[in-house]
Amino acid sequence: MTNSALSHRAWLAALVLSASVSNAQAAQAQEISLSSLDGTTLKAWVLQPDNKPRATVVALHGCGGLYATLGSRKGLINARHQAMADRLVGQGYAVVFPDSLTSRGVTQLCQQKLGERSIHQRERRRDALATLNWVAVQPWADASRMALLGWSHGGSAVLASTDAREPEVAAQPVKARVAIAFYPGCATSLKNGYQANTRLLMLLGALDDWTPSAPCVELGRKIAAQVQVYPGSYHDFDNPVGSVKLLPDIPNGVNPGQGVHAGPNPAAREAANALVLEVLAAAFD
Questions:
Q1: N or C end of the chain: smaller count of CB under 10 Å?
Q2: pLDDT at residue 1 greater than cutoff 90
Q3: Residue 285 pLDDT exceeds 90
């Protein structure tokens, strides 16, 4: 780990400049549009191996959005999301990425204080539920075999979209068979008495100083969720590119004003990815 500060722009460059796979190897994304439960027209991307009915993973991006912002992949799905999509499509699953940010004219939330954000978990929940509904009526999809997966802000959206106490969730005609959240923020869900409406797996970094693991561990204990904490791991530990960096311009986190750390831990990444596939296989079989 380096202790030197890194600008947000440089961090994004390290994060997305190199994809984990070449364009020739990458699963190809088809752009579609769908309507969120709040009426917003969402852009979304569908990746699938063929046209046969199959299980589908609805994948929810983090506060930095879905796309690479620099380099040869600028404007394309970034390295972390593409790597997961390739892995899932390789297992025969379809993957759908709803774009909650640029669909609303926003590029990123990471540098915004929580109280100043224009997109909250209410919007993310409505987008996720609408995407599940959209998948359920597609001729290539198996509506009984769907999962939610998200990272960070998108991991929190997984919690928001599976909270049985929420009227919108309770009214949902279809639901995910399993929900998987990489390093979500759990404090709000813990405080508000979150009740999962499906099986939940949370994958956490022991050293995470952006969305700390302790509230998620406590939440998992209260609701008997599956929780895996990876030692020596910070936020974004599953990223296939970059290295651990201090991000000084992130205003939220354990130590406000002091920045946060984020970056990959290859051993944790491989273990987490293997567990994701194991849990999906168990849920869908």
A1: C
A2: no
A3: no
Q: What tokens does 7 get?
A: 């600008």
Whose structure tokens read 């994004």? Answer: 12
pLDDT digits (tens, 9 = 90+) for 75-119: 889 999 999 999 999 999 999 999 999 999 999 999 888 888 889
Q: Can you tell me the mean pLDDT for 49-64?
A: 89
Distance CA 63, CA 86 (A): 21
What torsion, rounded to 10 degrees, do the Cα atoms 22, 28, 32, 38 define? Answer: -60
Distance CA 138, CA 18 (A): 33
Yes or no: domain 8-284 corresponds to CATH 3.40.50.1820: yes
Cβ atoms of 130 and 42 within 8 Å: the answer is yes
d(CA 148, CA 56): 9
Q: Would the pTM of this model clear 0.85, i.e. be above it?
A: yes
Which are the contacts of 181, defined by CB distance < 8 A and separation ≥ 6? 149, 150, 155, 156, 158, 159, 200, 201, 202, 203
